[in-house]
Design a protein that fits this description.
Elements (H helix, E strand, L loop, with lengths): L1 H5 L7 E4 L6 H12 L5 H4 L2 E4 L2 H10 L7 H10 L1
Parallel strand pairs: 1-2
Length: about 80
């Protein structure tokens, strides 16, 4: 999902209902991927997470897709 977003194939968010912290380690891994520059921060923010269903739905309603210039992103990849 995040890879397709980085490739500008889609701009849709994805949601995780993190009941009892089930996805906490996954989100830590994704945060680490951001730190290692494998995932762009604006794309990581496309993964909406909450423990409360209503709060997660609110995040979907308020979601704004990232405004990323694909050409700029590709040039950054060349420099890595």
């Amino acid at each position: 999902m995040l890879t397709w977003a980085q490739l500008n194939i889609h701009h849709k968010p994805c949601g995780l209902l993190n009941v009892c912290g089930y996805y906490t380690k996954l989100t830590s891994l994704l945060d680490y991927a951001v730190d290692e520059q494998f995932i762009e921060p604006e794309h990581r923010r496309m993964l909406l997470i909450d423990e409360v269903p209503e709060a997660l739905l609110t995040k979907f309603e308020e979601y704004q897709p990232p405004k990323v210039n694909k050409a700029t992103w590709a040039l950054q990849m060349d420099r890595r």
